[in-house]
Amino acid sequence: MQTSLLQSLPLEKLSALERAMTAELDRRQGANKLDRYRPYPKQKQFHDLGCTATERLLRAGNQQGKTHAGAMEMAMHLTGRYPDWWQGRRFAHAIDAWAACDTGETTRDNPQRALLGPVAQWGTGALPENAIVEIKRGRGVADLIDTVVVRHQSGATSRLGFKRYDQGRESWQGPAKHAIWCDEEPPAAIYGEALARLIATRGLIYTTFTPLKGMSEVVERLMLGQGGGADVNMTINDAQHIAPEDRARIVASFPEHEREARARGIPILGSGRVFPISEEALRVDPFPIPSHWALIAAMDFGWDHPFAAVKLAWDRDADVVYVTNTHRVREQTPVVHAAALRPWGAKLKWAWPHDGLQHDKGSGDTLAAQYRAQGLNMLRAHATHADGGYGLEAGVMAMLDRMKTGRLKVFAHLAEWFEEFRLYHRKEGLIAKERDDLLSATRVALMMLRAAASPDDVSIVPHAADGDYDPLR
């Protein structure tokens, strides 16, 4: 009788021998989960980035597959068994690695369980049973493992040690490692020691956690790419094992102040958030913009940090503004940016911040003049509030007021805008000017909303450089 047929029959219909065969089949399948691993798109994106980034973060909510992905990757590196779809980092030799978590108990229950399986069923986790050579128990915590020796495809053996953060920084000093996996956010001191263990081997480190500690030093480093690393955000909508009809119920079960973190992997910013508004209150599906609505665009200049631009549509009757288009690119010239932005509208007015008056060292032209020369209809003067000022806080408060009153909406597909919105926060009372390029462009556009015009009544062409002018033209 075929095993597939055996598995489909009710248990009471099977003989003792057939039941034994079915149990053995289940055991063998459970003993080689690695061969059957097929990552979700966000998990694969995370794996793929290992080819170019030595530091990575898979930032996700609870039960969304981050630990599973972390364990599967570590199993591949330890065994050298990389599937055909794998595009991430590869080790052609046996490795010395660590997997870690907060305490002995959480290390046992999370990375250890994901890699080895439950205590009574070691070999049913990400590490195939036939790859495990030796398991050495640890001390102090029941069933905690100290070291696993793993058979590598090269014929040599890899070594995996289980670590924990509560052991302190000193316990992380010592020999070089090829790979380190931190499941849950490590303290900055621990993370620094982990990085030091990888210098000699040019190894990799990756972390998988829900950012419940807010914008900590480690979260900021990884999310902002300060170490040349990569951040992948996986939300409850990316976890394909969670049925769509169950997602709203799961989100509602979390404490309100933790929902963004536990469902979407967004750091808890608490009172540090600049815009304490839910994304759902801003998000709208895209729709055709009526021809009589007023339009305006704005840019935020940048090179090392990205250049950003947004386009707004203003329903003047209801006084509701919609962010309809975004553009964010780093280390490109005005020629490149203008080519991408001209299709937004030949007569579209462009607002710009006061640093557009800075002169280029090569040409001597101001930044604003360079974009004007590329055919963008730049306003003659930099953006100001109606009273003539251009303060950051006043602009941010105007944005917040529109958000709270339902007068600022954002097209739902503009993922980069919402990414910045989630992380916009204060440090010691001051707005952190980091990864806020599209938000800055939006603020500039709203400052000059009085200059917006509809396609029906826009009749001007890009301005000449000199002469009398109306600053709103």
Summarize the structure.
This protein is an alpha/beta fold and about 475 residues long.
Tally of discrete structural domains = 3
CATH class of the largest domain: Alpha Beta
Shape: elongated
Major sheet: 8 strands, mixed
Rg over C-alpha atoms, rounded to the nearest angstrom: 27 Å
Q: What do the pLDDT scores average to?
A: 87
Describe the structure.
The model is unreliable at 1-6 and 458-473 (pLDDT under 50). The protein has three domains: 1-30, no CATH class; 34-268, 3-Layer(aba) Sandwich (Rossmann fold), CATH 3.40.50.300; 279-451, Nucleotidyltransferase, domain 5, CATH 3.30.420.280. Helix 5 (66-79) crosses helix 6 and helix 13 (392-404) packs across helix 15 (437-447). The protein starts with a helix and ends in a 26-residue tail after the last helix. The chain has 15 helices and 17 strands. It is 30% helix and 19% strand. It has helices spanning 3-8, 16-30, 33-36, 41-48, 66-79, 104-116, 188-196, 217-223, 244-253, 259-264, 334-341, 367-373, 392-404, 415-423, 437-447; strands at residues 55-60, 96-101, 132-137, 145-151, 157-164, 179-183, 204-209, 230-234, 283-284, 294-300, 307-315, 320-329, 349-351, 377-378, 408-411, 426-427, 430-431. It has an eight-stranded mixed beta sheet. The protein has a seven-stranded mixed beta sheet with strand order 9-15-12-11-10-13-14. Strands 16-17 form a two-stranded antiparallel sheet. It is of the alpha/beta class and 473 residues long. It is elongated, with a radius of gyration of 27 Å.
